[in-house]
From TrEMBL:
PANTHER family: PHOSPHOMANNOMUTASE. Belongs to the phosphohexose mutase family. This is Phosphomannomutase/phosphoglucomutase. Its cofactor is Mg(2+). It holds the Pfam family PGM_PMM_I. Keywords: Isomerase, Magnesium, Metal-binding, Phosphoprotein. It comes from Candidatus Rhodoluna planktonica. The keyword Cytoplasm does not apply. GO terms for molecular function: intramolecular phosphotransferase activity; metal ion binding. Residues 388-465 form the Alpha-D-phosphohexomutase C-terminal domain. The keyword RNA-binding does not apply. InterPro entries: A-D-PHexomutase_a/b/a-I (IPR005844), A-D-PHexomutase_a/b/a-I/II/III (IPR016055), A-D-PHexomutase_a/b/a-II (IPR005845), A-D-PHexomutase_a/b/a-III (IPR005846), A-D-PHexomutase_C (IPR005843), A-D-PHexomutase_C_sf (IPR036900), Alpha-D-phosphohexomutase_SF (IPR005841).
Length: 470
């Protein structure tokens, strides 16, 4: 079969259409390549999968390919992506997670980790895995003299207990929380962690479940809370149930989005600032006097940096990207990292991202004070953000050139993950910035704008958009 390897092997993971791009043969070849590239013969390799119809079969094909090259497969079965990171960290073994995250049911994919939940990107091994897999698909997989073994291991209870150790929710005020799992893996992990499904102590939380049934066809809405249309059901339910807040998880439950009691979204930047403040405070207690670093990507609100610095820590700005931020977490020994896309990374979770852990931090901080969520979140959301706006373009460079020319006298430009413009404001106390980035996977330009006042944000947003779409 003909496989467009460059199309399915993305910057940070593997993703493609089931049956067209991804088949059992392709998956088995990737498994063999993964074992070889990581020199994992004779050691454990963890395999987990989400609720998509194709995931169990792909996980089985991966296990066969990995065993053929000598790896001992540890199957953790149905799990969230952050559960697979937990297994990789707790068992100190590389892992493969079958999921296409928030993509439609016709897609599937693989998120790879090295031992200790360390990320793998094109630059740090994924390209080599791709190239090895090409050869295995063409020539077949040579089975080693001593093929690997297979065993099952259930880690959900250990995962839930570990998160409960990191964030205590026992003494918060009683909260009613609507949770939209989007028929994704949050339907498994939320009852385990926030409920008492595993005989853990009952928490002062009343969970109102929405779409907890695991269903990879996503019958209610796409499991992508970043798209506002997929939050509508949750927003309505929070108001109808008179809940304190709402939580929405994406398909593989590694991202979380928060909605206040009025049904209004709390920005991922506000969540990042809330969690950063808690992690900084804890590090001060555990390691008095030690330097503290928090990461934030360049698209988060300025409030994240301001909160981090006000609390006595160093804020380090990064480019956008899952594996890149994981690497930076390790390099800087950062206690926490936040992205505008609602990925939140924790040093105490092997530097990996964990939506559930971020949700628990928000519940803990919010539940230990008396304000409503809208009032509580307002102080972490003082500025005006456009959100990410995507435009299909034929010539991205030409669009960027138009923007540079138009704003040459009004902004200072920086080449850092696209182009970032800092406005030269004539009015004291006012400011604005925007970033224009090319998508890694689609013919898109992505625009993000923030300003100290709404009028400037709208003005800059509309002008840049007109230049992009000219």
């Amino acid at each position: 079969m003909t496989v467009n390897w460059d199309a399915i092997v993305k910057t940070y993971d593997v993703r493609g259409l089931v049956g067209k791009d991804l088949t059992n043969e392709v998956v088995a070849a990737l498994a063999a390549a993964f074992v070889d590239e990581l020199d994992a013969a004779g050691t454990d390799v963890i395999v987990g999968h989400d609720m998509r119809d194709s995931s169990p079969e792909f996980a089985e094909a991966f296990a066969e390919g990995a065993q053929a090259r000598g790896a001992h497969v540890v199957s953790i079965g149905l799990c969230s992506t952050d559960e697979s990171y937990f297994a990789s960290g707790a068992l100190d073994a590389p892992a493969a997670m079958f999921t296409a995250s928030h993509n439609p049911a016709t897609y599937n994919g693989i998120k790879f980790s090295r031992a200790g939940a360390r990320g793998i990107s094109l630059d740090t091994g994924l390209a080599a895995i791709r190239d090895r897999a090409k050869v295995y698909l063409e020539n077949g997989i040579n089975e080693v003299d001593e093929p690997g073994s297979f065993r099952e291991e259930h880690i959900l209870v250990r995962y839930a207990s570990y998160l409960r150790e990191l964030v205590s929710l026992n003494t918060i005020r009683p909260l009613k929380v609507v949770v939209d799992a989007g028929n994704g893996m949050g339907g498994l992990t939320v009852p385990a962690v926030l409920g008492h499904a595993n005989d853990l102590e009952r928490l002062p939380l009343e969970i109102v479940p929405m779409y907890f049934e695991l269903d990879g066809t996503f019958p209610n809405h796409e499991a992508n809370p970043l798209d506002p249309k997929n939050l509508v059901d949750l927003q309505r339910a929070v108001v109808d149930y008179q809940a304190d807040l709402g939580l929405a998880f994406d398909g593989d439950a590694d991202r979380v989005f928060v909605v206040d009691e009025k049904g209004q979204p709390v920005t991922p930047s506000a969540v990042a600032a809330i969690v950063a403040r808690r992690e900084i405070a804890r590090e001060k207690i555990q390691n008095p006097g030690a330097p503290i670093t928090v990461l934030h990507n360049l698209l988060t609100s300025n409030v994240v940096r301001e909160v981090v610095e006000a609390d006595g820590a160093r804020a380090v700005r990064t480019k956008v990207g899952h594996s890149l931020i994981k690497d930076k977490m390790a390099e800087t020994n950062a206690v926490f990292g936040g992205e505008h896309s609602a990925h939140y990374y924790f040093r105490d979770f092997w530097g990996a991202d964990n939506g559930m852990l971020a949700a628990m931090h928000v519940l803990a901080e919010f539940g230990n004070q008396d304000k409503s969520m809208s009032e509580f979140a307002a102080s972490y959301n003082p500025y005006f953000l456009s959100g990410e706006i995507n435009s299909t373009v034929a010539d991205a460079q030409a669009a960027k050139d138009r923007i540079r020319e138009a704003f040459a006298d009004r902004a200072d430009f920086e080449e850092f993950d696209g182009i970032t413009a800092q406005g030269k404001s004539a009015d004291a106390g006012t400011w604005w910035w925007f970033n224009v980035r090319t998508s890694n996977t689609e013919p898109l330009l992505r625009l993000n704008v923030e300003a100290s006042n709404e009028a400037d944000m709208i003005r800059v947003r509309d002008e840049v958009l007109s230049l992009i779409r000219a």
